[in-house]
Amino acid sequence: DADQLVHIPGHGHFKIQKICTAPDPLRKQKDMFEEVSLSTQTSSSPTLDMESPVDEMDAEQTWPTEEELLDAEQNNKHIKRVPKGTSSYQAVWMLSDSENSEDEEEDAMIEEEEEEEEESEEEFEDVDTESQAATEPDYDVHFDEELEAEELRKFREANEDEAFPDEIDTPLDVPARVRFQKYRGLKSFRTSPWDVKENLPLDYARISQIANFNNIRKYLLKKQLKEERCVSKGTYVSIYIENVPLAITGSSCSALSIFSLLPYEQKMCVQHAVVHRHPQSELVLKSKETILAQVGFRRYVIRPIYSQNTRSNKHKLERFMPTAGSFVSSYYAPITLSSSPVILFRQEENGSVTLLSSGAMLSCNPDRVVCKRVVLSGHPFKINKRTAVIRYLFHNREDITYFKPVEIKTKDGRRGHIKTALGTHGHCKIGFDGPLKQSDTVIMALYKRVFPKWDFQYS
């Protein structure tokens, strides 16, 4: 149909001006052929605009109405079974049965992973390095010391993140309340609420969102199959495309591939793909690094973020591309309604590409929440039954007061809250739900929502 947009790989989207019949190239008699127009562009043809217009005043904060306040109070009500005489404030901090079972499942999974770890035996062989270096005199000609140093730094960071996931040291030169002012504490990562429309970046004003993506996708695909075509199968046609760049018309290639687009597939959105790391890929890639993506028939440059593939309403960020298991890659890209395969590459400086991972498209949903977690750790200084003095968690009194509402946990499973600050050097008294061991480590988890980087361009 001439009202559909077409995609030319490597160049983008274009409009069809008209579709006409063409002579059969296998027939010898072509003099009597007369070109007939089968379809022409109408006023209902979609535009080529990929991005939505940005209104900087659209995010202006307004005071909520009484109806909105009542709806918010009803949505935030949670019913728990608590002992008689318990106040509403005390009930907030009491764990429900589902939250307790969640913690028990996490502890059981950790114990199973520790039991399944086995030491692998490696095979060694003797290699004469002097003779090997003599036979390869040009080995270090193209050696890049800066690139090697950067790869070594990322390799060490990835190993440290794997050994101590998300743990960082509380900074000494910057107050923690300033360094982590965009983070928040969550009572339960799985069940605690998170507003998906809160603190969105300006790039979200440039994208489009399809409400109920799965149902709309099924409807449009069925509609596409049932529609009557103006061109029947097996017909030779000439397609006239508007505003084609000279790079295409002046190329020496005899054949050109074009693909028709479904409605809304030219609009930008946040796309998610479930991928697996290739077994032979050993490169260390951080989130938001520039890579090359092949999604169906479209190929473009993206800067994705990686997250865990879970069924929760919040998903933890992976700082580096995982080397095992499935994970989700999120990036800005045009909407894709069909279930297309996804292949991720890394493009080298010399133009070659290296395969990183492959998988399939999951959805196009800007409301998928990806949270970055940081873990601050402290150590017991003095222990008195269920109360302990903790040091190294903070370094000044103001930070303790600022983070006082956040729940504190230990690696052995204890939970507690900050009672008071002691002195001016970051020591604080914390009450726990049970006796604390001197060898235990006190941690405080903070979360922040993260978004991909906008660096989209066709390749």
Topology:
Elements: E1 5-8, E2 12-21, E3 37-40, H1 66-75, H2 88-92, H3 97-116, H4 129-135, H5 145-163, E4 167-168, H6 176-179, H7 213-226, E5 237-241, H8 246-249, E6 259-260, E7 268-277, E8 291-295, E9 298-303, E10 305-308, E11 314-318, E12 326-334, E13 341-347, E14 353-364, E15 369-384, E16 387-391, H9 397-402, E17 408-410, E18 415-422, E19 427-432, E20 442-449, E21 453-458
Parallel strand pairs: 4-15, 11-15
Antiparallel strand pairs: 1-2, 1-6, 2-3, 2-5, 7-12, 7-14, 8-9, 8-13, 9-21, 10-11, 10-12, 13-14, 15-16, 15-20, 16-19, 17-18, 17-20, 18-19
What attributes does this structure have?
five-stranded antiparallel β-sheet, 459 residues, alpha+beta, six-stranded antiparallel barrel, single chain
Q: From the alpha-carbon coordinates, what is the Rg to the nearest angstrom? A: 29 Å
The helix content, as a percent range, equals 10-25%
The largest sheet has its strands arranged as: 15-16-19-18-17-20
Estimated structural class: alpha+beta
Number of helices: 9
The mean pLDDT is 81
* Shape estimate: elongated
Largest beta-sheet characterization? 6 strands, antiparallel, barrel
Q: Which residue ranges are poorly predicted, with pLDDT under 50 across at least 5 consecutive positions?
A: 118-124
Approximately how much beta-strand content do the residues carry? Answer: 25-35%
N-to-C terminal Cα separation, in Å?
27 Å
Report on the structure:
- The chain is 19% helix and 30% strand.
- It has nine helices and 21 strands.
- The protein has 459 residues and is of the alpha+beta class.
- The model is unreliable at 118-124 (pLDDT under 50).
- Strands 15-16-19-18-17-20 form a six-stranded antiparallel barrel.
- A hairpin with a 3-residue loop joins strand 1 (5-8) and strand 2 (12-21).
- The chain is elongated and about 100 Å long.
